[in-house]
Amino acid sequence: MFKRKVKKVQKQQKEKKKRKPQWGLFFDKVRHFFSLTPKSDRIVTLAVLLLVLCGTVMIISTNVGGTTSNANIVLMTTIRQVVYLVISFLFMWAANHIFNFKWFSKAQNMILIFAFIFMLMPLAFAASGGSHAWIRLPGGVTIQPAEFAKPLLILVFATSLYQARKDASMTRHWQILFRKPFICWAMLMVGIVLQHDYGTGFIISFIFFICLMIPAYPQMETFQKWLRRIIGTVFIVALVLFWVTDIGTSILSHTPLAHIATRIENAKNPYTDVYGSGYQPANALYGIGSGGLFGRGIGGSLRKYGYLTQADNDYILAVIIEETGIFGLGILSLLYGLLIYRFFYYAFKTNEFTYKTVLVGSSAYLFIHFVLNVGGVSGLIPSTGVPLLFISSGGSSLMAAFITIGLCQQCISQIRLKEMKSNAYRIR
């Protein structure tokens, strides 16, 4: 009786497919092809879409301020942003569907060599803002290799743990286990120091140390304990030298890193040189202060009209708060918090350290970007030139962030499928 009902339902479904127009079937196939893997987290997808939508609207809004000198800038910005989004989505799809740790572990050495060369390529181009961080292509297109280094470092960590599953000798000595990640981090840091992009260097180091803190093996507990103590001590000493007193900034001001000392002074009080080095931080604070609880309304910002030269990039948050108020900042914080919460939720749910590393490393990536950007714009910490992921303009950061989301969704899909199989086995 049950088999007859199943056959009847299958027959009805076939008849529906026959009646469906060919173009309908075509679009179904296209939608299925470009969709994420089964059992991906829809909450993560929704949060990313809302962040991207908010970012696109605000990028277009901030560029209205440039219409005084270029009437076509809004149209050009919209087209450019759509192109970046399409390319970013394709990268996310590839990371979600095509990537696997098996072939990455085999090609890892070649990828690291290519990554190091890629990191050195910007040195052949002119500096911008004191940093040689961009590869400049014809048509005004730029690529920032350091943005792609962040998901790469997470993958190298995760791949080491993937290889350890097949090679038991790696787990006996954790120094061997994390040799490749350390080499990767050191290579990336060499390129970043040569580029003078210290904000990115801090982010990559933060991701590196967070991944090291994941309790993968008991043999690492002593090392992790001492590493936490060292980092805590360095943080307290730096806080005293650079924030509580002026000892650190006075020393830095007589070195090639004098611009960092200037940024620290601007964070303490940008109004001491409001028409010089404190111009952007001061105007960002003016914008934030005038936003109030609900802001001036979309398009109502005054600071984007020449007062903030990086209104659609590093300082886009100042325009967002000016136009949407503290309420807008709260919504953004909620969406970022939701992403990080979902990643940690699945990281604690799985015993597979490969997936755990990807999810925790990606959470660290999102968290530190958010903290550095919000802190820099609000003057709580020195400005580091770090973009607000999914919100700020810039194709490289958007693509790197989408790659990270694609990798996380693949890990989440595998965790959920494995959970379903184990539940089905228990029922049997």
UniProtKB/TrEMBL annotation:
Membrane topology qualifier: Multi-pass membrane protein
Q: Name one Pfam family in it.
A: FTSW_RODA_SPOVE
Q: Alphabetically, which GO biological process terms does the record hold?
A: cell division; peptidoglycan biosynthetic process; regulation of cell shape
Task: Give the EC number.
Answer: 2.4.99.28
Q: Which InterPro entries does the UniProt record give?
A: FtsW/RodA
Alphabetically sorted, this entry's keywords are:
Cell shape, Glycosyltransferase, Membrane, Peptidoglycan synthesis, Transferase, Transmembrane, Transmembrane helix
Localization: Membrane
Give a GO molecular function annotation for the protein: peptidoglycan glycosyltransferase activity
Give the catalysed reaction(s), semicolon-separated.
[GlcNAc-(1->4)-Mur2Ac(oyl-L-Ala-gamma-D-Glu-L-Lys-D-Ala-D-Ala)](n)-di-trans,octa-cis-undecaprenyl diphosphate + beta-D-GlcNAc-(1->4)-Mur2Ac(oyl-L-Ala-gamma-D-Glu-L-Lys-D-Ala-D-Ala)-di-trans,octa-cis-undecaprenyl diphosphate = [GlcNAc-(1->4)-Mur2Ac(oyl-L-Ala-gamma-D-Glu-L-Lys-D-Ala-D-Ala)](n+1)-di-trans,octa-cis-undecaprenyl diphosphate + di-trans,octa-cis-undecaprenyl diphosphate + H(+)
* Enzyme kind, highest EC tier: transferase
Q: Name one GO cellular component term.
A: plasma membrane
Task: Reply yes or no: does the keyword Transferase apply.
Answer: yes
Q: What does this protein do?
A: Peptidoglycan polymerase that is essential for cell division.
The Swiss-Prot or TrEMBL record describes its family as follows: Belongs to the SEDS family. FtsW subfamily.
What protein is this chain from? Answer: Probable peptidoglycan glycosyltransferase FtsW
Query: Which species does this protein come from?
Result: Faecalicoccus pleomorphus
> Gene of origin?
ftsW
